User: What shape does this take?
Amino acid sequence: MDTCARTTPVRPSLRTTVVIAALAVGAIPAAALIAQPAGTPFTVVETGESYASLQQAVDAIGSGEGSIAIASGTYRECAVQEGGSVSYLAADPGKAVFDGVTCEGKAALVLRGRAATVSGLVFRRMTVPDYNGAGIRLEQGDLTVAQSWFADSQQGILTADDPSSRLVIDKSTFSGLGTCEGSGGCAHSIYIGDYGHLRVTRSRFERGTGGHYVKARAARVEIAASSFDDSAGRGTNYMIDLPEGATGQITNNWFVQGRDKENYSAFIAVGAEDISHSSDGLQIAGNDARFVPALSRSSAFVADWTGANLAIGDNRLGAGIARFDAR
Assistant: This one.
């Protein structure tokens, strides 16, 4: 049964609708400046040594810190990072493609080191038997993803739990991701476990093929200046699902809900599974949400199961979209 929840209307202001994209990602080394010998596509920037496989380059950095410049090309290989801090940098953004090969039955990059940065890479056609095939499987540590593409896979990014770490995604595209075929539940464009902080800025989610576009169990989320285009989606659910609650902000995003939905009852869901994190003060403002043209139905922009004091400000909502629904 639906029950009334406490919501705190917020007047529009620069403070409530701040665009945080400019703060999302720090300086990333210019991999394009690295000259790479022919036939050795993976170069450790700090040493100048080149390797025939990505795993060899990762192993060369080991528990230390280093950057790998990746030459343009299509690679049917993967790598596991066991330690250290590693940056994976495309020499020419969008032209270093990891296609269809996963390590450990998980992902093209399996990350369980101290930290990682991924910039300019393309991950596509990742599938595994348990329907969790991803471009990146993050098992622990901090991760920054910038100007990267995830396409036509079961998931884009999937993480384990690491409450002390942070995941930042900026200027990246997630297309043709998600599935509910597996017996263990749905896969999603990105599925973040119990991380301390998730930040998504200036990114695009489109053409989902099941599940949610963003599902995050993180204690704090910042999702800003991004687009969620479900117009060509198939069997999708929520645009943003915070199943255990979260603080932070969802601001200045653009949402279009498509026709082919497994669940069209809400755009943003808060606390639908459990209440592990406080959602008091979660700011949702400056967003634009609508249905695809000529579609008439009813949906809630925000559906809340927590009863928290959500800070829902001014959002531009199309016909048929209710501002808030307590569930």
The two ends are 7 Å apart (CA to CA). The longest helix spans residues 54-61.
